[in-house]
């Protein structure tokens, strides 16, 4: 009898261990499966080596949060408005029990705390514009254990255990760099207006520009200033740079492009080739001053990335297959192809990023839809 009880006890212990191991395995993250994804036209894998995730299906509607970091520029404000506009669309709204937005500024610890709070509060998914690409390892582990889907976009996270949605940010820097090499054929001094320090977007775009300039073999010299992707900041630091260095042969801005060009106008500096973002104000200035010598390439990534990230989170929660890294197309236009009503809008505010659509994902917003949302 004692042996039977002992045997039974041992069997129970083994079974408990097995069940615990199974639970731990199921909470360790999504299953890695073969592709393609649920929506192959929208969810394009980053490379042919990108793995595919399948999360356990959850019954909706879902609680989804957007954890934004930096907020002090028009791109981020438009991004938040776009997120709210997307969440308000009837077919998306039907899948949402709650959609919450929080912005924590440049404080990395505060953003991590916000994501952890959403996990602890039982949210089904958290969408993140990460303030730092390497600071979220512990957060990812907690999310996996809690069965929470994490999707990073724009400023993504250096991990293959989280879904990342982005355009080729380094490729965008390369695009601007190639434009400058072509249009400043003898080399020269380039003003580079950078973004928010420490973010993956700033680093990737900077690396793309610099690698192309260096590879050209031409005598390029770069003066770097920090514009934080903001028109007012970019205008001030550009004005300061012109005052100190007197002359530039080309200019490029990751954001705050309108402010950069305005500083050149205010300083009465001759127009030089410009490779910069997709701000409406920048494109209006490029079109208006083309005859005066302002030659531009405008390329970038619309804030509607956030809508793709939310769409990805919902798809993953429904148990459908998604790539671990999703690559979105860039929007760009070059001189002399700037056209009012097509790729710039003279009657709209300068503080609007054009190209805010991803048609392959069924995502296309008018300025009115986005600007009608609050910034909170």
TrEMBL record:
The keyword Signal applies. InterPro entries: Peripla_BP_I, SBP_2_dom. The keyword Membrane does not apply. It is found in: Cell envelope. Residues 1-27 form the signal peptide. It holds the Pfam family Peripla_BP_4. Residues 64-319 form the Periplasmic binding protein domain. Keywords: Signal. Belongs to the bacterial solute-binding protein 2 family. This is Ribose ABC transporter substrate-binding protein. It comes from Labrys miyagiensis. The lineage of its organism: Bacteria, Pseudomonadati, Pseudomonadota, Alphaproteobacteria, Hyphomicrobiales.
């Amino acid at each position: 009898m004692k042996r039977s009880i002992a045997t039974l006890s041992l069997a129970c212990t083994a079974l408990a261990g097995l069940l615990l191991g199974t639970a731990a395995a199921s909470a360790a993250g999504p299953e890695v499966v073969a592709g393609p994804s649920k929506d192959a036209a929208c969810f394009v894998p980053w490379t042919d080596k990108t793995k595919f995730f399948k999360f356990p299906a959850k019954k909706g509607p879902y609680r989804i949060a957007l954890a934004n970091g930096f907020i002090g520029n028009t791109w981020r404000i438009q991004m938040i408005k776009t997120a709210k506009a997307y969440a308000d669309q009837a077919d998306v709204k039907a899948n949402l029990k709650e959609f919450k937005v929080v912005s924590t500024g440049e404080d990395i610890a505060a953003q991590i705390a916000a994501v952890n709070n959403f996990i602890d509060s039982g949210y089904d998914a958290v969408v993140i514009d990460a303030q730092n690409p390497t600071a979220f390892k512990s957060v990812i582990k907690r999310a996996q254990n809690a069965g929470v889907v994490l999707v990073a976009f724009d400023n993504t996270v250096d991990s293959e255990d989280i879904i990342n949605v982005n355009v080729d940010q380094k490729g965008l820097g390369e695009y601007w760099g190639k434009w400058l090499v072509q249009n400043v054929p003898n080399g020269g001094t380039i003003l580079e207006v950078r973004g928010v320090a420490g973010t993956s977007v700033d680093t990737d775009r900077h690396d793309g520009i610099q690698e192309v300039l260096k590879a050209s073999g031409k005598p390029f010299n770069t003066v770097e200033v920090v514009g934080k992707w903001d028109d007012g900041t970019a205008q001030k630091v550009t004005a300061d740079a012109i005052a100190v260095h007197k002359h530039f042969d080309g200019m490029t801005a990751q954001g705050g492009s309108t402010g950069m060009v305005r500083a050149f106008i205010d300083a009465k500096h001759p127009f030089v080739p410009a490779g910069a973002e997709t701000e409406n104000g920048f494109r209006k200035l490029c079109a208006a001053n083309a005859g005066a010598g302002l030659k531009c390439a405008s390329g970038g990534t619309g804030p509607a990335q956030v809508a793709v990230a939310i769409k990805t989170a919902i798809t993953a929660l429904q148990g459908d297959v998604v790539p671990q890294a999703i690559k979105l197309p860039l929007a760009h236009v070059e001189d002399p192809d700037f056209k009012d009503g097509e790729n710039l809008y003279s009657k709209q505010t300068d503080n609007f990023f054009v190209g805010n659509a991803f048609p392959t994902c069924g995502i296309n917003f008018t300025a009115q839809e986005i600007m009608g949302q609050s910034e909170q």
